């Protein structure tokens, strides 16, 4: 009986691994706005849904790192759904406190930018699979706002 159960588990596991899953990629990270407490950047993420039904995104977890230190992190609960058989652009706002930027002065240097690594986890509720996380990691360089950005 246990052999039959093991075969059934293996069969289901193989079928789930062969099932198409949503895929995501970061298309852009750019300055959005300045507030009294922080600088906000906006990560634009393209997520492709291979299923014929919309899929809810349960949450998005993010971690924004620079100089091997986490400078911002958070969770965005219930950001919406992925369109059926289509690609959906998802905006992920990242708020970086000013106090952290001061500690990154050496990296900012003369070119007024920071090198970053953005790690994202899209928790998706997919049909027949259940909840799973699409992990993403993206490295880049983002400009700090200038005075003209702040008053534009």
Give structural notes.
The chain is of the alpha+beta class and 152 residues long. Helix content is 20%, strand content 59%. It is built from 4 helices and 7 strands; from the N terminus they run αβββββααββα. Strands 4-3-6-7 form a 4-stranded antiparallel sheet, with no helix packed on it. Strands 1-2-5 form a 3-stranded antiparallel sheet.
Outline:
The chain is built from four helices and seven strands; from the N terminus they run H-E-E-E-E-E-H-H-E-E-H.
Radius of gyration: 20 Å
Number of E strands? 7
Low-pLDDT sequence parts? none
Oligomeric state of the chains present here = single chain
Helix count, DSSP H or I runs of 4 or more residues: 4
Main sheet properties: 4 strands, antiparallel
Q: Please bin the fraction of helical residues.
A: 10-25%
Determine the mean pLDDT.
Answer: 82
Lay out the secondary structure:
Blueprint: H1 2-18, E1 23-34, E2 38-49, E3 55-66, E4 69-82, E5 86-97, H2 98-103, H3 105-108, E6 113-126, E7 130-143, H4 147-150
Antiparallel strand pairs: 1-2, 2-5, 3-4, 3-6, 6-7
Q: What are the defining features of this structure?
A:
alpha+beta, 4 helices, 7 strands, 3-stranded antiparallel β-sheet, 152 residues, 20% helix, 4-stranded antiparallel β-sheet, 59% strand
């Amino acid at each position: 009986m246990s052999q039959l159960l093991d075969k059934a588990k293996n069969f289901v596991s193989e079928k789930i691994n062969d099932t198409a899953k949503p895929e995501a990629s970061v298309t852009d990270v750019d300055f959005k706005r300045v507030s009294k407490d922080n600088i906000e950047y906006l990560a634009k993420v393209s997520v492709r849904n291979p299923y014929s039904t919309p899929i809810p995104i349960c949450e998005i977890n993010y971690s924004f790192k620079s100089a091997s230190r986490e400078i911002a992190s958070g969770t965005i609960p219930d950001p919406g759904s992925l369109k059926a058989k289509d690609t959906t652009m998802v905006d992920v706002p990242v708020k970086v406190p000013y106090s952290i930027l001061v500690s990154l002065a050496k990296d900012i240097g003369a070119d007024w930018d920071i090198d970053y690594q953005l790690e994202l986890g899209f928790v998706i509720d997919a049909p027949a699979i259940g909840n799973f996380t699409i992990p993403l990691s993206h490295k880049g360089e983002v400009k700090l706002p200038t005075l003209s950005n702040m008053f534009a």
